[in-house]
Design brief:
There is one protein chain. The chain is built from nine helices and 23 strands. With 479 residues, the chain is of the alpha+beta class. It folds into two domains: 305 residues, no CATH class; 160 residues, no CATH class. Strands 1, 10, 11, 12, 13, 14, 15, 21, 22 and 23 form a ten-stranded mixed sheet that branches. Strands 2, 3, 4, 5, 6 and 7 form a six-stranded antiparallel sheet that branches.
Length: 479
Amino acid sequence: MNRKKNILLLSTFILLGSSIYGNDNLSQVDLNISVKKSFIENIINKELPTTMTDSGSGSQLFGGGSKNDLLSLGLNLLGNVDKKYTEKFRWNYSITRDPIAFSAKGQNIQGVANFNGTLKAQWDRETQGVDANLKGTAGISSNIVINKNWEIIAESTPIFTISQGTLPLKLNIYGMELKTDINVNKNIEQKIVSNLYKATDILDNKIREFDLRSLVEKQWLQLKHPILINQDYNLWLTVNPLDASYSNIVSDENNIGIKLGTNSQLHIYMGEKPKDLVLNSLPPMNYGEVKDTFNINLPVTATYSALNKELQKNINNKTFSLPLNSKLTLKDIEIFNENNNLKIDTNIALDILGFLNPNAKVISTVNLKYNETNSSFDKSDFDYTLVTDSTLLKFADKFLHGYIKSKISEKVFSMKTDSYITLLKHMAQEKVNSINLEDKAILKTSISSLTLKNILVKKNYITVITNIQGKSNLEIISK
């Protein structure tokens, strides 16, 4: 049997970007919806250059905290009499900002850059003026929520602070020494904040344009139909999402996102297609605790009739080589339940040395006991009964029964599952690395571990329970 077909456990389910917490009946499906930090950086960079300069002349920087109200009146009168006098008061500043740094707390995300610079103000007629160092911060603060109608809403505002916003200045005018202030804060703030408002409008509109409801609802309503995830084995996945919630903003080295989750019932079945589920439109979105990693406990159930059909397709009439130029053919095999033990009836045909052709029926009884710690069936009980008309086989079984039983137990029912599970993990990872969703978002999933938890033998079916851990992220494509 091709081992690649054994990826019947989850490859398609993870395509849903899911993360599952809880028992077999109720699970929490979580993922991150994120955008590249560079997307926000580019918006801010466009409106807030790395270096900003400005200059001017006149007395417009005076006041706004003047220590001499008469000075403002005097300068205004002086300007009316001798306009060139006040125009010769010249000023300029140059500011350089650092790269933007992001931080997230609760439902708020901030992208802020520190800046440093210098201010020079000089009165040409007299050697009097001021030089000062400037420093501060500028950026954007955004509160991001998902309303009950699944709309992502961002409300962004500028961030601006500056030190040395008001600088003292001594002036000597016609022999009179007067004190005033230079209010550089207002001029710089008007220039920077007006640009930041442009950036906040662009950012909020870009986020609003991403139609989360349409993207999710289309997939949500499809979940009422069982999903055929493996045609070779007739494997059907059922996912029954019950509610939806989101929680705090998350931030890593490259991405900014918000966590989304839903309580769901899920199962994989082998055999006939299960009945459709009753699913209505999306439930209201609520704010609540959501994890950003997944821990999947997924049951996979197969009826004995479904298993036997697959065995008929893949095992029946298979021939295996034996030593001494002999062969063994598995004519047919059937699995069923007897007193909560697996019963395996196998009809075989032998070709011994090219001229002996005995037939036999092997009736096996297995009490499966999976040891999760050792990843093996090392506590399973196994025995078999040989039914045959062949004197040769009866004679061989009489003397070799214990040896054959121990070898089968050792090779089959006590085997380590690690290598198969590792192969399954790698195959599943290849399926879910990166999936494009309608050119609107990219679903990326990383599987950190995949383990076999247990095997349950019931009257009419067998259930295999697996555990998968990892992380899923839905990255919005920024255009």
